[in-house]
Write a structure and sequence with these properties.
heterodimer; A: mainly alpha; MetI-like fold; 2 domains; elongated; B: 284 residues; mainly alpha; 73% helix; globular
Chain lengths: 293, 284
């Protein structure tokens, strides 16, 4: 159902974005040429007919030909760029998890310590830094001034560090906060106190008993995480000229490439819905109580 | 404690400091831009192109330096505050009105209304806001209306969800049943009995959204799909200096710093406000 509405929105959006015929033909094209191309693309038919055709083709995996990248289907254009985005997004997720889970846990364990205060400053900064500015500042400091990393473009790990950090920053903040508050709640519970009384070491109590039960909260956040990484990719890929789907989306809309725009938006929306579905399943695996409901 | 004592204690606390920063960086510049700004934010001056900031080899005439066209960065940031404040106020107000109204209807009337409205919320959360803005911007070109529309689209769902959840709890309480027995219409119950009880939530949510909205607006402007040039919106100012970061870092750096300080102080204030108005959620 959600998906159905998304397809309608996607379809109408891309038809609001102006006539692709104008963008494809040179300015001095004749009226005949314009009509021929319009007919060829099926743009002369009523909207609902175009929509049904669009859905019918989409179900067969056919999203039309790209008008900007000639000779390629829209899905090919997008899927070709996908690995770059996934690599960057994957690294960003890795950074956010590796940085924020221990930080959140330790902040909760050593509540009100300097470490906890440091974590809350990081959380505050993460929510307040605009990603595009952070990206530029990181580039300025670490690539331009210090010369530790290349400034932009596609390449190996050294090219990916700065964009991934810029992308992960906000997530680190959100995840740290969530982990911390979930841990605080669990640490306060009876069974954790009991585990301590039993004489288990601090580490076993924290990681094996408490964290396992607190982990469910950060896991639910992964759905949001997946979505915001895709959105974030538009900004970060633009700043670092990283040729992924985010940069592609900007290029396609500027070039009025309807089929590619449709496919990107649809793909992002489906990806987001799917990620949330996976989260629901994982949720049930971690916490059997939810499965039984 | 006397009023002055309370006031001075507030000013010395963290939220107090955030409030002072907010007044200095956002509110005073937004209200009195024409009085404070030392230069015309739109006027290009070729002779003073790319002047570095004061203390970095520049003069006190352009304390934060000048951009590629010789415009004073300091003056442009000051004028930019108007757009950050204006867009976020209008956008949040409209988003809150739409979201609250629909959330009330969903939570109070239940049934078909509830299903439809909550499904709409799911869908707006599933559509990437930046892509929506990109698609819309390529029809109409970047504009203020577009930014406001995207802001409403992005935030109404948060209000709708929260208001619905609280309405669901409130409608089961005795005072609602009593009002109904006394013959109050559904509309009257929503407006006079439920709404006053969720105003605090709406205010807290609205405050916490200011930072989100300022960043969203700046991001759209940065990508060239928000506020149109040559308006000195903060996001556009950062974009202006992007290509020149190697040689003239100040063009991008200071406007971004203004965004950072504003959003940070708004977030601190929002948290403090939540603690006061909505003590239930303090532990979260």
């Amino acid at each position: 159902m959600s998906l159905f509405v998304v397809t309608i929105v996607v379809f109408s959006l891309s038809h609001l974005t102006g006539d692709p015929v104008d963008a494809m033909l040179p300015d001095d094209a004749t009226q005949q040429q314009i009509e021929d191309l319009t007919k060829h693309l099926g743009l002369d038919r009523p909207y609902h007919v175009q929509y049904v055709t669009f859905i019918g083709n989409a179900l067969r995996g056919d999203f039309g030909q790209s008008t900007k990248w000639r000779g390629k289907s829209a899905s090919t254009v997008v899927l070709e760029r996908l690995p770059a985005t996934l690599k960057l997004g994957g690294l960003a997720i890795l950074i956010s998890v590796v940085a924020s889970i221990p930080l959140g846990v330790l902040a909760a364990v050593y509540r009100n310590s300097p470490l906890d205060r440091g974590a809350s400053v990081i959380a505050l900064l993460g929510q307040s830094l605009p990603a595009f500015w952070l990206a530029i500042v990181l580039m300025w400091i670490f690539a331009v001034t210090l010369g530790w990393f290349p400034t932009s473009g596609l390449g190996g790990l050294s090219y990916m560090i700065l964009p991934a950090v810029a992308m992960a920053w906000f997530q680190v903040a959100a995840l740290t906060r969530l982990t911390r508050s979930a841990m605080l709640e669990v640490l306060d519970s009876e069974y954790v106190k009991f585990a301590k009384v039993k004489g288990l070491t601090e580490n076993v109590v924290i990681w094996k008993h408490a964290f396992r039960n607190a982990a469910i909260v950060p896991v639910t956040y992964f759905g949001v995480l997946a979505g915001s990484l895709l959105t974030g990719s538009v900004v970060i890929e633009t700043v670092f000229a990283w040729p992924g789907t985010g940069l592609l989306a900007l290029e396609a809309i500027r070039g009025r490439d309807f089929p590619v725009v449709q496919f990107v938006v649809l793909f992002f929306a489906v990806f987001y819905l799917f990620a949330n579905l996976v989260i629901d399943v994982v949720y049930g695996l971690i916490d059997p109580r939810i499965r039984q409901d | 404690m006397g009023r002055t004592a309370r006031l001075s204690r507030f000013m010395l606390s963290v939220p107090g400091a955030a409030f002072i920063v907010l007044v200095i960086v956002l509110i005073i510049p937004a209200l009195f831009a024409d009085l404070i700004a030392p230069h015309d934010p739109y006027k290009a001056n070729i002779r003073s192109r790319l002047e570095p900031p004061f203390l970095f080899g520049g003069t006190t005439e352009f304390i934060l330096g000048t951009d590629r066209l010789g415009r004073d960065v300091f003056s442009r940031i000051i004028h930019g505050a108007k757009f950050a404040l204006g867009i976020s106020m209008v956008g949040i107000l409209l988003g809150a009105v739409v979201g609250t109204a629909l959330g009330l209807i969903a939570g109070f009337l239940r049934g078909w209304w509830d299903a439809t409205i909550m499904r709409a919320v799911d869908i707006t959360f599933a559509l990437p806001s930046i892509l929506l803005a990109l698609a819309l911007a390529s029809v109409s070109g970047p504009s203020f209306e577009l930014v406001i529309f995207v802001v409403i689209f992005v935030i109404w769902g948060y209000f709708a969800r929260q208001v619905r959840a609280e309405t669901l709890a409130l409608r089961e309480l005795d005072f609602v049943a009593r009002a109904r027995v006394l013959g109050a219409s559904e509309y009257r119950i929503m407006w006079k009995y439920i709404l006053p009880n969720i105003v605090n939530t709406i205010v807290v949510l609205g405050t916490l959204q200011i930072g989100v909205v300022i960043i969203l607006e700046a991001t759209l402007s940065f990508l060239g799909i928000g506020i149109p040039r040559p308006t000195p919106a903060w996001g556009l100012l950062v974009a202006d200096g992007r290509q020149l970061i190697v040689s003239s870092w100040w063009i991008s750096f200071f406007p971004g710093l203004a965004i950072l300080l504003t959003v940070m102080s708004v977030n601190v204030l929002g948290d403090a406000l939540r603690d006061v108005l909505d003590p239930k959620s303090r532990s979260v």
